[in-house]
Design goal:
six-stranded parallel beta sheet, globular, five-stranded parallel beta sheet, alpha/beta, 18% strand, 47% helix, binds zinc ion, 16 strands, binds nicotinamide-adenine-dinucleotide
Length: 458
C-alpha cells in the first residue's frame, strides 16, 4: 500500500461516470504535474476495432505511462484494473486513488452518453457491482472531490470523528508511542488511547508550547522510546508537539514512521501537513530539523472545539494567510488541501512552498523584536498587513478578520532579525508578495521594507 503520492504517479481509477476526466486536469494543475487521460478515444477505438483489441491497446498504453519516470497524474479506463499486469504496475509505481461513485449516480451521468458499456441499465449495474471490489482492492485511498483527492495524495485523512478511528488510521500493525503535552493528553488522550487499543506501546508527555521544541526534550524522548523500526510515533497536539515528535521520529533509529494528529487550528491548516519537523536552538527558531513526511496526518476538526479563544485566533491568522494565497475563501478542509498541494509540488521548499511564508518575514522579525513575548498569530496578522501594503492590495481582508494593532517591540532588534532572516540582493530584500496572478517572490528596496516594518511597531 502506498501512503501518499510523493515521488509516485497518481492513478485515478473508478467506474465510468465517476468524474475522472473532469478531475484529472484540475488535480494535475494543483500538483504541478502533467495529466494524461489514458482512456481518451476509447469509445471510438472500441467502435472501430472491438473490445478485445481495445483491452490489448489499453494494456500497452497504460503500462507505457505508468512506467514513465516523471511522476504524473493519469486517469485510467474503467476496466483497466481487470488486467493483472496493470494492477501489479499500479502497486509498484503509483498512488492509486479511487474516485467513488454509486451505481445510481453513475447511471444518471452516463445513460445519455454514447459509451458502449452504458446502453442497458441492468448490465450497467451488474458491471458496477463486479468492478467495485476490484477498485477497492487496488486503491490506496478514496476521494469524491478535488480537495479530497489532494488531501489523499498527501496522506491526509480529514473527517469528523477521525480520532476514534486512530487505531486503523495509523499505518502498519506495529506498536505506537503516543506523544502529547499535559493539556492535550488530559482532554483528548483518553479517546486516542482507546482508539489505539492494543497497539499503544508507551505514553510520553512533553511541555506545552514552544518549550517542547528543544533538543533536551527530544533527547529525553529518544531515551524513553522502545520502538523498533516497525513502530510509529503518534503526535497528538499543536504545532509544537508535532514539530518535536516528527523530528524525534526522523532521527530515532535513523527514522521511524510518525503520524500527526493536529489539535490546533495552526496544526490543522499548516504545521501537521507536509513533513517539516524540527526544534529550536537558543540562537533561533526551527534551526535544527528534518523533512520527514508523516505516514499519515489525521485531522479531526471536532478536536478544535476545546481550544481556548487565544489559540483559536492563532489559527485564524494562518487561515487568512492561506485564503490570501489561494485568492478565495476556504473552509478548514480547503485550507488544509491548499497547503498539502503546495507541499506535494515542492516537498523540499525550493519553490512555491515558500509562498507559505507570506507575512512571515515581518512576523519573525516582530517576534524577535518583542523578545518572543508576542503570540505567533498576532505577529502573522501584522506581517500580512505589511505584505498587503507592499503588494499594493486592499488591506480589508486582514483588518476585518484579524484587526491587527501595532505592538511594542525593539525596532532595531526587529530590523536586524529581518536582515538575518532574509537574503539581500544588493540593497533589496526578497519578500513573498501578492501579484496580479497570485503569490510571487520579489525584491523590494531595503528602506521601503524597513518603513513597512516600523509601521507595525507602536
Ligand atoms: N512544521 C510546519 O510546517 C509548521 C507550520 C506552522 C507552524 N509551525 C510551528 O507550530 C508551532 C505553533 O503551534 P500551535 O500554534 O499549534 O501551538 P502549540 O502546539 O503550542 O499549542 C498551543 C496551546 O494549545 C493547547 N492545545 C492544543 N490543542 C488543544 C485543544 N484541542 N484543546 C485545548 N488546548 C489545546 C496546547 O496545550 C498549547 O498550550 C510553532 O512552533 C511553529 O513554529 C510549524
Ligand atoms: Zn506561521
Amino acid at each position: 500500500m502506498a501512503l501518499n503520492a510523493l515521488g509516485r504517479h497518481v492513478a485515478l481509477v473508478g467506474f465510468m461516470g465517476a468524474g475522472k476526466s473532469t478531475l484529472l486536469p484540475q488535480l494535475a494543475e494543483r500538483l504541478g504535474r502533467p495529466g494524461v487521460d489514458i482512456d481518451e478515444g476509447a469509445t471510438q477505438f472500441i467502435a472501430e476495432h472491438g473490445m478485445d483489441a481495445f483491452r490489448m491497446h489499453e494494456l500497452q498504453r497504460t503500462l507505457f505511462f505508468l512506467e514513465g519516470r516523471e511522476p504524473g497524474v493519469f486517469a485510467l479506463g474503467g476496466g483497466a484494473v481487470t488486467a493483472p499486469e496493470i494492477r501489479d504496475e499500479l502497486a509498484r509505481s503509483a498512488f492509486t486513488l479511487l474516485l467513488d461513485v454509486s451505481a445510481d449516480d453513475a447511471w444518471e451521468r452516463v445513460r445519455e452518453s454514447d459509451r458502449p458499456l452504458a446502453r442497458e441499465e441492468d448490465a450497467f449495474r451488474l458491471l458496477h457491482a463486479e468492478r467495485d471490489h476490484l477498485y477497492r482492492a487496488v486503491a490506496d485511498a478514496t476521494a469524491t472531490d478535488l480537495d479530497g483527492a489532494v488531501l489523499a495524495c498527501a496522506g491526509v485523512h480529514y473527517a469528523l470523528g477521525a480520532l476514534d478511528r486512530l487505531g486503523e488510521l495509523v499505518p502498519g500493525d506495529g506498536p505506537v508511542a503516543l506523544v502529547a503535552d499535559a493539556t492535550v493528553m488530559g482532554i483528548h488522550g483518553p479517546r486516542a488511547q482507546q482508539a489505539l487499543g492494543d497497539r499503544l506501546g508507551s505514553l510520553h508527555e512533553v511541555p506545552a508550547g514552544e518549550p517542547a521544541k528543544q533538543l533536551a526534550v527530544a533527547q529525553r524522548l529518544w531515551s524513553e522510546l522502545r520502538l523498533d523500526r516497525g513502530g510509529t510515533v503518534v503526535a497528538l497536539g499543536g504545532g509544537t508537539t508535532t514539530d518535536l515528535a516528527g523530528y524525534v521520529a526522523a532521527a530515532y533509529l535513523r527514522g521511524v514512521a510518525w503520524v500527526a494528529v493536529p489539535t490546533t487550528g495552526v496544526g490543522q491548516v499548516d504545521a501537521a501537513i507536509g513533513g517539516k519537523t524540527g526544534v529550536d536552538l537558543p540562537e533561533g527558531k526551527n534551526l535544527v530539523g528534518a523533512f520527514h513526511w508523516p505516514a499519515r496526518t489525521v485531522i479531526d476538526p471536532a478536536l478544535l472545539e476545546t481550544l481556548p479563544e487565544r489559540e483559536r485566533r492563532q489559527g485564524l491568522a494562518e487561515h487568512v494567510k492561506t485564503e490570501l494565497l489561494a485568492g478565495r475563501s476556504l473552509d478548514g478542509r480547503g485550507a488544509a488541501a491548499y497547503k498539502a498541494a503546495l507541499c506535494l509540488r515542492d516537498p523540499h521548499d525550493r519553490g512555491p512552498r515558500q509562498w507559505l511564508n507570506l507575512g512571515h518575514t515581518f512576523a519573525h522579525a516582530l517576534e524577535t523584536g518583542a523578545d518572543f513575548d508576542l503570540p505567533h498569530g498576532e505577529a502573522v496578522a501584522l506581517g500580512l498587513l505589511a505584505a498587503l501594503r507592499l503588494s499594493g492590495r486592499d488591506t480589508a481582508p486582514v483588518v476585518d478578520a484579524l484587526d491587527p494593532q501595532p505592538v511594542a517591540a525593539d525596532r532595531e532588534r526587529a530590523w536586524q532579525a529581518l536582515l538575518r532572516d532574509k537574503k539581500r540582493t544588493g540593497d533589496a530584500i526578497n519578500l513573498v508578495l501578492l501579484g496580479a496572478d497570485g503569490p510571487v517572490v520579489e525584491p523590494r528596496p531595503a528602506d521601503e521594507v524597513r518603513a513597512a516594518l516600523d509601521s507595525l511597531i507602536s
